[in-house]
Structure formats: structure tokens, C-alpha cells
């Protein structure tokens, strides 16, 4: 192993206890404001800001400006950097990335896609059984979010209250994932995100488009689910 490779894979030491809690909250719930974290930690906002400042200085968090739900007044939120994510090592993700890399090197890009397709088929059968009792699109979307959360994606669903129609009159829903258990792999293999998008569309039986993507540095993965009238 080269010195460079050892440096890249070396684990990041976790900071003191409260700061570790801050990092864990951001990891589990997605980008947070200082107010959000103060409430979750039961500390004052100035105390939360001090911890955030230290974590920013250590390169474990980054600050960005976002609009709540894509609308409203912009606010400062804090998200994990790659260094921050490395504080919570996921050996299975590292193994997965290595396997996909070797597949690509040995058998070409098509082999990677075949593996992901096979994974989706098995995962789809499992989730489809849970969606079987959902009669409406809204029920299917809500149940899919539940299943994704169980898989580690911290997913929520909602119908846009300001938009009840799409084009000629279809309903519109959103699924938001604030955590990705495969983020390090998704950054290296865009095919993983593309295959998940196809899976969601297949499970819901309607068009699904991705509006934001954590693997591209955005704060969450947000999917727009639109059903046009027949």
C-alpha cells in the first residue's frame, strides 16, 4: 500500500462527546441549522454555534445556504464533509466500492450495470410486497418512504401543498432522503443513483425525477413523483 493510499483510508478520530453528537445528528437527519441542533441537544443556540465553529475549523462540517423545502427565506445549514463522514467508517461501503471497481476493470462497465440491475430486482421484490396493499399513489409513496427509512435512507414523503396538479391534472408527491448509507459508493459510481431512480419509478408505476443528489454535494436526495391523468 502506498503512503497516499494509507492516508486516504486512515480513519478520522472522533472529537469530544458533544461534538460527536452533533456529527451524528447531522449524519442521521441531514443538514441542520444551529437552531435545529440546539433544540436536539437541549443547549443554547450560542453553545451550538461554538461546537459548529469548532467542527467547521476541523473540516468535519461545511456551511451552506439553503431554502427550506426549496422555498422560503434562505437559511444557513451545516452538513458533513467527506472528512466528517469518514468519522463514521462504513467498511461494507468500502468493500462494495472495491468489488465494483474490480468488476469494471475485469469485465467492463456492462458488468457493473448487470450487478446493480440484479440488486434492484431483488430489492424491488422485497419492497413491492410491502406496497401491495397501497391503493393510491399517495399511499404507495408513503409506504416506499417507510421502506427506504428501514434501509437507512431516512426518507420522508409529502404532497406539495402549493401544487396539486401537474400539467393536465395529475397529482405530485415528493420523497426526500436526508441520509444515504451508500454515499461513498454513489460518489464513485453514478450508476448506483441511476439504478435507484429506475427502481423507484418501477415500484410506484409513475414518472420519478431526481431534483437533488447528495452524491453531487447537495444536502439531500429529493425525488419528484408525478402521476399524469390517464
From TrEMBL:
Protein name, entry field: Helix-turn-helix transcriptional regulator
Annotated ranges, domain HTH arsR-type: 9-93
InterPro entries, alphabetized: HTH_ArsR_DNA-bd_dom (IPR001845), WH-like_DNA-bd_sf (IPR036388), WH_DNA-bd_sf (IPR036390)
